[in-house]
Write a structure and sequence with these properties.
Length: about 290
């Protein structure tokens, strides 16, 4: 069985190591703060006395630390020839591409990964990890990677998994921004949020989220018209929301940059287009 090492035992690295141990793998662990190895050693992990002991030729090294600078800071000190690196640290597409070149130039196989799960989901249904880079590495280690989460290979360009990861996070943070602002409005009326969330907001977001399928198809086809609600109507709604926020005494409007984009598109004469046309404003496509 392949030797597997986990470098970085923060919340995510600890979950990754624990899941592989439970699946019966032999796992070596290393972390800057050594005490974090203890619960895993109690589960059967081997503690590496130093980083070089965890990064050995022939081993699969899963690294999950704060950022790519940390990855380079750590692995820049060790011999990488004959090692296979799976980097589950979150980062930018360009960082992943540079890291792949850097690792391969030093004789290591490289696969980048974007973890679409919180630590508690690792090893359970619903967890997804997107991978890009070496297809050969992905295929060779399909079994242990499949223990961590659904493993989906997206491209040989190492930057694509981080790019898709960021696109999904962008959607998530946008949604959280809207939820936060909506909560503030409900709070300003002195109402508890619990009922609002369960009976109104969550079902509404679920239904509206479905529109993304339709918008995606329209953007792919360059169709900017709409039979749902045009930008002119949406501008009136967003103006009204901004005013209501102020009238209710709410500090700030997290929708402001979005409203700015709608205002610009309408000012440019595109009031009959749909919301999906805003993507064109951000990027003209390739
Ligand atoms: P934690 O803050 O819990 O852990 C950070 C890890 O990085 C620790 O092992 C820490 O070591 C190590 N580290 C930080 N700085 C250094 C340094 N200068 N030298 C050596 N080691 C260092 O973070 P998470 O485990 O939550 O996240 C790790 C990665 O996983 C991040 O890139 C994150 O974006 C990604 N991720 C996390 C998710 C989550 O829900 N938690 C979800 C998806 C991705 P030490 O213990 O010594 O401080």
């Amino acid at each position: 069985m392949t030797e597997i090492s986990i470098v970085g035992l923060g919340l995510m690295g600890t979950a990754l190591a624990g899941t592989l141990l439970k699946a019966g793998h032999e796992v070596t662990v290393w972390n800057r703060t050594d005490s974090k190895t203890e619960p895993l050693v109690a589960m059967g992990a081997r503690r590496a006395a130093n980083l070089a002991e965890a990064v050995r030729p022939g081993s699969l090294v899963i690294v999950c630390v704060l950022d790519y600078d940390t990855v380079h800071g750590l692995l820049g000190q060790t011999e990488l020839r004959g090692v296979t690196l799976v980097n589950l640290t979150s980062g930018r597409p360009e960082e992943a591409r540079r890291t792949a070149e850097w690792a391969e130039a030093r004789g290591a196989g490289y696969l980048d990964g974007g973890v679409m799960a919180v630590p508690q989901m690792i090893g359970a249904p619903g967890a997804l990890i997107l991978y890009s880079g070496s297809r050969e590495v992905f295929d060779r280690f399909a079994e242990p990677l499949g223990q961590l989460a659904e493993a989906r290979f997206v491209d040989t360009d190492p930057g694509l998994a981080p790019l898709l990861d960021m696109a999904m996070l962008t959607g998530m943070y946008g949604q959280i921004a809207g939820i936060t602002q909506g909560f503030a409005l409900v709070r300003s009326a002195g109402l508890p949020l619990r009922d609002f969330a369960s009976t109104l907001l969550v079902p509404w977001l679920r239904a509206m989220g479905e529109l993304a399928h339709r918008w995606a198809e329209e953007v792919d086809a360059g169709q900017w018209g709409t039979d749902v609600a045009n930008l002119g109507v949406n501008k009136v709604a967003l103006d009204s929301i901004a005013l209501a926020m102020r009238e209710q005494g709410i500090e700030g409007n997290l929708l402001a940059p979005f409203k700015h984009l709608v205002d610009k598109r309408v000012a440019d004469g595109h009031q009959d287009q749909g919301l999906q046309s805003l993507v064109e404003e951000l990027h003209p496509g390739r």
